[in-house]
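Why should sequence recovery work at all? Because a backbone constrains its sequence more than one might expect. Tight turns favour small or flexible residues, buried strands favour hydrophobic ones, and helices have their own preferences. The token representation captures these environments compactly. In the example below, the structure is given first.
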């Protein structure tokens, strides 16, 4: 085994759907699904990451695909630790005397107990010095919005398990609100739609594909069509049905409205000086779900502000955590 005095410091975004890892001095090195495959006794990890996600819906009774992080929150401590161990090993090949410093992105609004669970999982997996960073702040860093300055930023982050609205200034969260709904919730709504309206049972990966390729809140996309494969609920045979984009609007709209209500309620609680910054600059959109066709435009219209986004919103949080890893003092300014 390779031996090193000092291990490599890194940042990690423990997302509901993906885990991303940034290595100090190098940049983003891992971007894989946060899934695990376990044996029948739940004792042995058989596959992790993309390999595990590919097995979803295709396993037999001896193995099971699990996601230890649901709705942005650790639901199984031991599994999360097993997954962290896998990623820690991937970054730090070999054995080192001094353990790594790790920056961990945590969802906005998680409880102190949940924060402790993340810290404990990371300590057990072998890290020394842990900096926990609120996901919204990490995204603001990743989008180069200078969240350490006395300037109000309104950021909406929509991921797989959670959606957050945060008003940020001087490295802190001034007001925020979170719902435990995101892309996974929309996938479930799409599965329900096919079951109820098309008598077709479809898997979660298929529902996600339909959401990404077809779902849209743009009226002009309404006639876009897709063929979807699944199992006919009447005769249990494989079947293919056609679906229009307009049919899926009922799956997306209630969620979009809930996000807008959350934004409006957050703006009501925002101090006036910050409100005027937001009025001038609009709002930042982050998280992969923000790419859903027509969603940004829908929110803009409902709240009356313009939005802006980075080139790849799935990487905002990890690139921000990476910046904090490279220069922790900037992030620790104005904080306890
Ligand atoms: N182009 C797209 N259009 C719509 N949805 C998308 C698109 N690309 C990815 N998604 C969805 O975005 C979600 C993943 O977002 P992201 O990677 O930001 O989440 P996460 O960080 O793992 O989750 P969380 O922050 O909730 O813990 C998934 O539900 C995925 O299906």
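From this structural description, the recovered sequence reads:
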């Amino acid at each position: 085994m390779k031996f090193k005095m000092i291990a490599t410091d890194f940042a990690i975004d423990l997302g509901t759907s993906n885990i991303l890892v940034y290595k100090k001095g190098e940049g983003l090195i891992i971007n894989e699904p946060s899934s695990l495959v376990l044996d029948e006794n739940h004792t042995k990890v058989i596959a992790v990451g993309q390999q595990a996600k590919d097995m979803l819906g295709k396993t037999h009774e001896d193995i099971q695909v699990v996601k230890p992080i649901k709705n942005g929150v650790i639901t199984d401590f031991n599994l999360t630790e097993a997954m962290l161990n896998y990623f820690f090993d991937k970054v730090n090949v070999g054995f080192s005397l001094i353990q790594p410093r790790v920056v961990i992105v945590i969802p906005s609004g998680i409880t102190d107990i949940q924060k402790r669970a993340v810290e404990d999982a990371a300590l057990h997996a072998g890290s020394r010095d842990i900096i926990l960073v609120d996901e919204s702040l990490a995204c603001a860093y990743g989008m180069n919005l200078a969240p350490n300055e006395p300037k109000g930023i309104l950021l909406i982050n929509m991921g797989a398990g959670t959606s957050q609205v945060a008003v940020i200034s001087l490295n802190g969260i001034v007001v925020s609100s979170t719902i435990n709904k995101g892309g996974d919730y929309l996938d479930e709504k799409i599965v329900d739609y096919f079951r109820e309206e098309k008598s077709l049972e479809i898997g979660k990966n298929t529902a996600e594909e339909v959401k990404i390729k077809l779902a849209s809140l743009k009226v002009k996309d309404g006639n876009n069509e897709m063929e979807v494969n699944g199992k006919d609920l009447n005769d249990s045979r494989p079947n293919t049905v056609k679906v229009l984009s307009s049919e899926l609007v009922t799956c997306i709209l209630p969620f979009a409205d809930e996000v807008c209500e959350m934004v409006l309620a957050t703006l009501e609680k925002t101090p006036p000086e910050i409100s005027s910054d937001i009025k001038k600059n609009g709002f930042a959109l982050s998280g992969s779900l923000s790419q859903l066709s027509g969603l940004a435009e829908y929110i803009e219209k409902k709240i009356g502000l313009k939005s802006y986004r980075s080139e790849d919103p799935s990487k905002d949080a990890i690139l921000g955590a990476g910046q904090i890893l490279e220069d922790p003092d900037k992030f620790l300014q104005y904080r306890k």
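A few observations help interpret the result. The chain is about 35% helix and 30% strand.
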